[in-house]
Design a protein that fits this description.
CATH architecture of the largest domain: 2-Layer Sandwich
Number of domains: 2
Strand order of the largest sheet: 1-4-8-7-6-5
Largest sheet: 6 strands, antiparallel
Shape: globular
Structural class: alpha+beta
CATH topology of the largest domain: BirA Bifunctional Protein, domain 2
Distance between the termini: 29 Å
Length: 229
């Protein structure tokens, strides 16, 4: 975000070889070892832009496409976990973080942070983790970034086109982990339990409670029952 305050241009990528003091959601610490990919993209959006939150879904589809293209036919497909993780066989492979700030120019600076475990998965996490190397993909961070930046450009173009929001959210839903399964969500108003029904057109998680009520959730942590995540 400091680059944005200093006047950095729109669609600037910043890539770190190693990250020791990164941040995850809700300010949680995050580290990315050398050999993994930690990349951030700066976007300049118009004041009051309503699309900022949906850029996480654009990024999720771009990362999923990137990894899918690196895989061979028959490999276990990656899944998207609402709101910002990518999983392979239930273990966390990648994460996405959005950070926004209104600049003195009144433009909205949005940083899309993307971390992918390429060479190794972090130890000591309270959930299962994996890496591309663990999946049998011998690739470098540079190769992954080249593919990611190309897929991001294609996904953003798709999003900005006719019916783009529906196209991106439709692809995200098709890759989603846990749809139709029991979930527990820790949200601001307390815990919600029910069936993960869908992601609505605003990117909200929709849970069908035991009462039959459909509860939209804007932000929270989701636990898919039977999963460590």
């Amino acid at each position: 975000m400091e680059r944005a305050r200093d006047g950095a241009p729109d669609r600037l990528w910043v890539v770190a070889r190693e990250q020791t003091r990164g941040r995850g959601r809700r300010g949680r610490p995050w580290q990315s070892a050398r050999g993994n990919l930690a990349a951030s993209l700066l976007l300049h959006l118009a004041p009051g832009n309503q699309d900022a939150g949906l850029m996480g879904f654009v990024a999720g589809v771009a990362v999923a496409r990137t990894i899918s293209k690196l895989q061979s036919d028959g490999d276990e497909p990656v899944k998207l976990k609402w709101p910002n993780d990518l999983l392979c066989q239930g273990a966390k492979l990648a994460g996405i973080l959005l950070e926004a700030e209104t600049l003195p120019s009144r433009q909205l600076a949005l940083v899309v942070g993307i971390g992918i475990n390429v060479a190794e998965a972090p130890d000591g996490m309270p959930y299962a983790t994996t890496s591309l190397h663990d999946m049998g993909l011998t690739v470098t961070p540079e190769t992954v970034f080249a593919a990611l930046s190309a897929h991001w450009a294609a996904c953003l173009e798709l999003y900005l086109g006719k019916n783009g929001r529906n196209s991106i959210l439709g692809e995200w839903r098709a890759r989603a982990a846990g749809i139709g399964e029991p979930v527990r969500v820790a949200a601001a108003g307390g815990e919600i339990e029910g069936i993960f029904e869908t992601i609505d057109d605003d990117g909200r998680l929709v849970v069908k409670a035991a009462s039959g009520q459909r509860v939209p959730v804007t932000a929270g942590d989701i636990l898919i029952k039977g999963s460590e995540l």
